[in-house]
Write a structure and sequence with these properties.
Elements: E1 2-6, E2 9-11, E3 17-24, E4 32-38, E5 45-51, E6 56-59, E7 67-71, E8 77-82, E9 91-98, E10 111-112, E11 116-120
Length: 121
């Protein structure tokens, strides 16, 4: 499975961005799909995840009420709608897919995208 993220960019505080993750190479019928983010010298942290075909299972406390993870009508696409962005949301955002597990740990995911940079300033 190959994952390609898009939608990052520079936005002012209070603005919105919509990240997309397109999967290819296999259907993601029952995968765990997650969004993680990382800033330099910090560990990658889980932002949100879901099992495809189902509801969101997790949001980090720091993004609850502002971010929404969902599976797009194009079933091989998962999006992260980010509203009311704050400077502390600035990070590289990664999409990940897990075959067997769904959780907060990077080790639970089998495939990763290259990341898309989000800068709130």
């Amino acid at each position: 499975v190959q994952l390609v993220e898009s939608g990052g960019g520079l936005v002012q505080p209070g603005g919105s961005l919509r990240l997309s993750c397109v999967a290819s190479g296999d259907t993601i019928g029952r995968y765990c799909m997650g969004w993680f983010r990382q800033i330099p010298d910090k560990e990658r942290e889980a932002v949100a995840y879901l099992v495809t075909g189902g509801p969101a299972l997790y949001y980090a406390d720091s993004v609850k009420g502002r971010f929404t993870i969902s599976q797009a009508s194009a079933k091989n696409t998962v999006t992260l709608q980010m509203n009311s962005l704050k400077p502390e949301d600035t990070a590289m955002y990664y999409c990940a897919a897990g075959i067997m597990w769904c959780g907060l740990a990077q080790s639970e995911y089998d495939y990763w995208g290259q990341g898309t940079q989000v800068t709130v300033s």
